[in-house]
Amino acid sequence: MEKLNINSKIILNNKTEMPVMGLGVWRVAEGEEVIKAVKWAFDAGYRMIDTAKIYLNEAGVGKAIKESGISREEIFVTTKLWNTDQGYDNALKAIDVSLAELGLDYVDLYLIHWPTAGEPSKGESINKREETWRAMEEIYRSGKAKAIGVSNYTINHLEEMKKYAKIPPAINQVEFHPFLYQKELLDYCNKNNIALEAYCPLMHGEKLADARISKVAEKYNRSNAQILLRWSLQHGCIPLPKSARQEHLQENINVFDFELAENDMKILDSLNENLHLRADPTNLK
User: Fold this and answer.
1) Any catalytic annotation for residue 55?
2) pLDDT tens, position by position, for the chain (285 residues)?
3) Which is the catalytic residue, given 55, 153, 181, 199?
4) In what helix (H) or strand (E) does residue 9 lie, and over which residues does it extend?
5) Looking at the domain that runs over 12-205+234-249, which CATH code has it been given?
6) Quick count: other Cβ atoms within 10 Å of Cβ 4?
């Protein structure tokens, strides 16, 4: 595996370059909290911010970008189309709303947030995927998004896309951590040249103190969080750890000066128990 550093990029299937790690801002409050978190992230060396319409903090993310003094070209911004905005016309309007909130002319990546226009936690399967993707392709061609992709798509959803997508998704962003080691999905994405982004890489702190993770962490003199992020990176994923605390932001990105041995990767792989901390998209038809 190529040695990664803080400035390493992944080249997506449309030749867009994307940082190998970013900051997720889910549940980071709009206003001062998100503005501070994004600025601290930039100070620590992050250059990718992952937000979404439903996070209700796009304006704060945009303000932090503007005030950072960093050139727009250096920053990779992702936002997402919410379920109730699915459908062709709705999606075309939604990107304009997000861009206005962010105060940007374009985003680097625009994702369909879930494979349903309903509420995933209630298992509401409302399939508007094909017409929504048609709008995503138009958004991409217009230059409002430099790359387009999906989130929470299973192999079945990605296979279905082959029937209607003229432009394949560049990214599939899914929940991915040792307790939800989606190896089959990762292998599928690798085979089909779709980069896999890992959200909840630190499991919202649940099971973070697991003794088996702690044992590996002790060996490398690292925090449990750093071990989990390194695990994601060594699987070729793009982790999106979320934090609004400066010391955690710094700790989370300080993972490029060590490497997990194959045996330790296997120990972490073996923790899988199909634990979904967010809605399980498997049942969304």
Assistant:
1) yes
2) 579 999 999 999 999 999 999 999 999 999 999 999 999 999 999 999 999 999 999 999 999 999 999 999 999 999 999 999 999 999 999 999 999 999 999 999 999 999 999 999 999 999 999 999 999 999 999 999 999 999 999 999 999 999 999 999 999 999 999 999 999 999 999 999 999 999 999 999 899 999 999 999 999 999 999 999 999 999 999 999 999 999 999 999 999 999 999 999 999 999 999 999 999 999 899
3) 55
4) strand 9-11
5) 3.20.20.100
6) 18
Q: Which of 56, 123, 54 is nearest to 86 (CA)?
A: 54
CA distance 167 to 140: 9
**Closest to 228 in 3D by CA, of 203, 248, 249:** 203
Q: Has this prediction a pTM greater than 0.90?
A: yes
CA 141 to chain centre: 22
Check: CB of residue 107 under 8 Å from CB of residue 114: no
CA–CA distance, 69 with 73 (Å, rounded to integer): 12
